[in-house]
Specification:
Blueprint: E1 3-8, E2 11-17, E3 22-29, E4 34-37, H1 46-51, E5 58-61, H2 67-70, E6 78-81, H3 86-92, H4 95-100, E7 113-114, E8 119-121, E9 126-131, E10 140-144, E11 149-151, E12 161-163, H5 171-188, E13 192-194, H6 204-218, E14 226-229, E15 234-240, E16 243-247
Parallel strand pairs: 4-5, 5-6, 6-7, 11-13, 12-16
Antiparallel strand pairs: 1-2, 2-3, 3-4, 8-9, 9-10, 10-11, 14-15, 15-16
Helix pairs in contact: 5-6
Length: 250
């Protein structure tokens, strides 16, 4: 069952549990249209939930192509994804793949369109698209200038950020993304982050801690990391205070 929470003016967080983690999706409403940032595992009737919150037309912006972010896309007529994550989406929406993970499957196909814009207008509310390779090569972040929030998908989490999937980038590329996000955060006057698996709004310090962790990894400092196998996510696990990163390539 999904949990719906109002987290700001015309801004809602919709959370659902899947087999692996709780995932957070976000509904942002403007004067003309609305956007769902990600659609979860497909376990919840998002059409019904969202219709109780707005009568505006709703499009989906997927932060990346993983199964816990795209499998509710079929509840909406319009969905958008970075083209670099198309093959990821294709695999993670495949019935046989979902069956192998003992996950709900059999969803209507909802092939996303490729993002070919740098901003998306909701009417009195502008969303800016930030290419953010790291967790996946086609990951994006979304700056909501209305709420002064950056939605970062799975690139910053309070749990464990995954760079250990077949779709992930190196630590070096991920660090460059973090630097870009920090710059945009400061230049735009943003005040916080929301993520795909966060229970709360995060501050800039969360990003800065991951930057410091990347530096430790790239400089070969700190405790020697151990190889971990978490199924889809395999690699070396490094930690710094509250941050944890599983990675394969420097």
């Amino acid at each position: 069952m999904a949990k719906v929470s109002k987290i700001g003016e015309n801004t809602w967080k919709i959370s659902e549990w899947g087999r692996f983690f709780r995932v957070s999706m976000y509904l942002l409403i403007g004067s003309e249209r609305a956007v769902m940032i990600d659609t979860g595992y497909g376990n919840s009737d998002l059409k019904k939930i969202v219709s109780n919150l707005t009568n505006k037309p709703v499009a989906v912006l997927n932060t990346h192509g993983h199964l816990d972010h795209v499998n509710g896309n079929h509840f909406f007529n319009e969905s958008w994804l970075a083209k670099e994550d198309y093959e990821v989406w294709k695999l993670h929406s495949d019935d046989e793949f979902l069956k192998s993970l003992k996950l709900k499957h059999g969803f209507p196909k909802a092939t996303p369109q490729f993002i070919d814009f740098t901003s998306y207008e909701l009417g009195g509310r502008t969303l800016e698209i930030i290419p953010s390779p790291g967790h996946t090569k086609g990951s994006i972040s979304i700056l909501d200038t209305f709420s002064k929030t950056i939605f970062v998908g799975d690139n910053i989490t309070p749990l464990n950020t995954w760079l250990g999937t077949d779709d992930s980038t190196s630590v070096t590329v991920y660090r460059e993304t973090l630097e870009t996000l920090k710059r945009i955060f400061l230049e735009s006057g943003a005040t916080g982050f929301h993520a795909g698996h966060s229970f709360f709004r995060m501050k800039l310090s969360a990003l800065e801690e991951y930057l410091s962790l990347c530096d430790l990894i790239l400089e070969g400092k700190g405790k020697k990391p151990k190889w971990v196998d978490m199924g889809l996510n395999k690699g070396y696990m490094s930690r710094l205070r509250t941050s944890s990163l599983v990675w394969r390539e420097l």
